[in-house]
Write a structure and sequence with these properties.
It contains 9 helices and 13 strands. With 324 residues, it is of the alpha/beta class. The chain has 2 domains: 22-243, Rossmann fold; 275-324, no CATH class. The strands form 3 sheets. The chain has a 7-stranded mixed sheet. Strands 2-1-4-5 form a 4-stranded antiparallel sheet, covered by helices on one side. Strand 9 (232-237) and strand 10 form a beta hairpin. It is globular. The N and C termini lie far apart (52 Å). The structure holds adenosine-5'-triphosphate (ATP) and magnesium ion. Magnesium ion is lined by residues 64-65. Residues 64-65 line the site of magnesium ion.
């Protein structure tokens, strides 16, 4: 079944930005609370291609929700560039913001109660965004039923959220979020209130929706098992994207399917990257490091001011030596 309908970004006057379905460049968000500035995003870079399914992971307070709130059009960044489906989020105002939230993006939040109206049944909840968008009653009924079926919650059609399990509510919430065929589906901890088995089901449903409708999906999560459900996992550290894990399937010489995962550090436009914390601790790196350009790699060396001289600094440690 395919439920996607090609949709133009909301209106002709919208500034179009090219370079990916979700593009964040040097994104900064500073909150000022009680005279103290909190830099929630500190120059974050992220590119997501159309149709991709990506997870964002990171410690509490690393800026994940801040990023999603900006991408959903509920908050505006302090500086940098952010665009979704060609819509520039820095210049989005008034009516265009409402249209953006109604048609271009869909969201699923962690709190099951925030996603569905308690006094409407599942079918009515899914129908509501389509009715607000002015679709015909017949089209709404057909699509709402098809979406509930795709998400495996047809049996909840006539039930209100109070009579559904947490997993059923979140699956219905996904149906609501994609009702108006958004180009991008954003989910902030959609499995945060669910047990492990139900979380896995909901993440699988995210994958189904991505595969069936082609919607680009960005999921923020603490769930360590998320990486089994997505091709790309991006880690945020201190308001910046730091590392990525890409997964691909390969077939070995006996024909067996292997899942290969590779970790990469994110390199920004001007060449900045974050060293993983375990490298920094293991090599006791601090303040500054020496860099050497080798034929096929770069070396990172502890500043040798207090140590024995190596190539311009310390003797190489075992880990550094292995890299060579
Ligand atoms: N409205 C706000 N006012 C002031 N500071 C804020 C506000 N919202 C978030 N912050 C701060 O910004 C930083 C990033 O918060 P954010 O909610 O994006 O983190 P998170 O990665 O989603 O964390 P969690 O995993 O706990 O949900 C934190 O230091 C937080 O305290
Ligand atoms: Mg959060």
């Amino acid at each position: 079944m395919s439920t996607s309908t090609a949709q133009e970004p909301i209106d002709g006057a919208t500034t179009r930005v090219s370079g990916g379905e979700i593009v964040c460049e040097d994104l900064v968000r500073i909150y000022a609370a009680d005279g103290i500035e909190v830099q929630a995003l500190q120059g974050l870079n992220l590119h997501v291609e159309a149709g991709d399914l990506v997870a964002i992971v990171g410690a509490s307070g690393s800026g994940k929700s801040t990023l999603l709130t900006i991408l959903s059009g509920l908050d505006t960044p302090t500086a940098g560039r952010a665009s979704v489906a060609g819509v520039d989020l820095l210049t989005l105002g008034g009516k265009r913001r409402v249209a953006y939230q109604r048609h271009t993006v869909g969201f699923v939040w962690q709190q099951t109660s925030r996603n569905l109206l308690p006094y409407l049944n599942a079918l009515e909840n899914v129908a509501l965004p389509m009715a607000l968008a002015g679709q015909s009653a017949k089209a709404i009924d057909e699509r709402a039923d098809a979406l509930l079926e795709m998400l495996g919650v047809s049996h909840c059609r006539d039930r209100r959220p109070g009579a559904m399990s947490g997993g059923e509510q979140q699956r219905t919430a996904i149906a609501v979020a994609v009702a108006n065929s958004p180009q991008v589906l954003l989910a902030d901890e959609p499995t945060g209130e669910l047990d492990e088995a139900t979380s896995a089901e909901v993440l699988e449903m995210m994958r189904t929706v991505n595969a069936e409708t082609g919607v680009t999906v960005l999921i923020v999560t603490h769930d360590p098992t998320v990486s089994e459900h997505v091709r790309r996992t991006v880690q945020i550290r201190d308001g910046r994207t730091s590392t990525e894990v890409l997964r691909r399937r390969e077939t070995d010489e006996h024909g067996a399917e292997l899942h290969v995962a590779e970790e990469f550090a994110v390199l920004d436009k001007v060449g900045r990257m974050q060293l993983p914390q375990d490298f920094v601790s293991a090599l006791e790196l601090k303040d500054r490091v020496r860099l050497t350009l080798e034929e096929d790699h770069a070396g990172v060396w502890r500043d040798g001011r207090h140590g024995k001289p190596g190539p311009g600094g310390d003797e190489p440690t075992d880990q550094q030596e292995e890299e060579r």
